[in-house]
Write a structure and sequence with these properties.
Layout (H helix, E strand, L loop, with lengths): L9 E13 L3 E4 L10 E6 L2 E7 L2 E4 L3 H7 L3 E3 L6 E3 L8 E9 L2 E12 L3 H8 E5 L4 E3 L10 E6 L2 E7 L2 E4 L3 H7 L3 E3 L6 E3 L8 E8 L3 E13 L5 H33 L1
Parallel strand pairs: 1-9, 10-18
Antiparallel strand pairs: 2-7, 2-18, 3-4, 3-8, 4-5, 6-7, 8-9, 11-16, 12-13, 12-17, 13-14, 15-16, 17-18
């Protein structure tokens, strides 16, 4: 493990955080420092500087090598210094290092990010599901290897299920209870969510958030279409198109929610 040393600067050794994500996820790497403690922040990916905050100045991908790798997929929270990588790919696998220099001291934090590759066919199967009204459907969370994290399922913007350590919760608010009426089941070991006796009102976007004190992962999990018996193929196709448009809007919403959560944690 590398420990840096600068003249007149006291050092703190780097803590390494393993982060496991799937292709297509967005992940936010938290700084876990207060805004008034930031000083100078620099982010590196495999020794390439990718972002920096120096006073009021903010820099993202000022080097060509960074631009070639990330192509406008990096976001930097100016208030907290946290770094977000959107639509993550296999080439983003590697070591991300956050360096903070503040009032004569510095600290390092290392994130070891591993990206699980997903084929186009597998991604399509996981993210689009169609069932007939009355059938049951299970939503797969994908690869989840992050320990000590909180898994949260949302239907649109409604929190419907959560796993925290050994504890799990389903439909803790009236809006969820009214919509699903004891039809949800959560697998505590895998994190998968099953909806029984599906209704057309269950159609929509189901998303998964994986949060810890060091990082947040946003995963658009499934666009679910519940088909009412007797509908024509043309009508069904129209429903699917509308739901896919909703999914595109939700990608923007998930990023904004991650930024809001990041700011609240600072």
């Amino acid at each position: 493990m590398l420990i840096c040393s600068l003249p007149g600067v006291s050092g703190v050794g780097a803590d390494e955080v393993p982060v496991f994500v799937m292709e297509g996820d967005s992940v936010t790497l938290h700084t876990n420092i207060e805004a008034n403690q930031q000083g100078k922040i620099r982010w590196y990916f495999n020794d390439i500087q990718v972002a920096a905050i120096i006073g009021e100045k903010r820099e993202i991908c000022t080097y060509d090598e960074c631009k070639e790798i990330f192509r406008d997929r990096l976001k930097l929270n100016h208030q907290t210094g946290s770094l977000t990588i959107t639509n993550i790919t296999n080439t983003d696998t590697g070591v991300y290092r956050r360096k903070v220099i503040n009032s004569g001291s510095f600290s390092d934090k290392i994130f070891s990010v591993s990206v699980h590759g997903v084929s186009a066919a597998e991604r399509d199967k996981m993210k689009r599901k169609s069932v007939k009204e009355g059938e049951s459907v299970t939503l797969d969370p994908g690869v989840v290897k992050n320990l000590n994290s909180v898994m949260t399922w949302y239907f649109s913007d409604i929190l419907i299920a959560e796993i925290t350590g050994d504890q799990s919760k389903i439909c803790t608010d009236d809006q969820c209870k009214e919509r699903f009426r004891d039809r949800l089941k959560l697998d505590h070991q895998t994190g998968s969510l099953t909806i029984s006796n599906t209704r057309t009102t269950d159609s929509g976007l189901y998303t998964l958030q994986i949060n810890s004190s060091s990082f947040s992962i946003s995963r658009i999990s499934t666009v679910l279409t519940v088909i009412e018996s007797g509908l024509s193929p043309g009508v069904i196709a129209g429903i699917v198109v509308v739901l896919l448009l909703i999914a595109a809007v939700a990608a923007v919403f998930l990023y904004r929610r991650a930024r809001r959560k990041d700011t609240e944690q600072s």
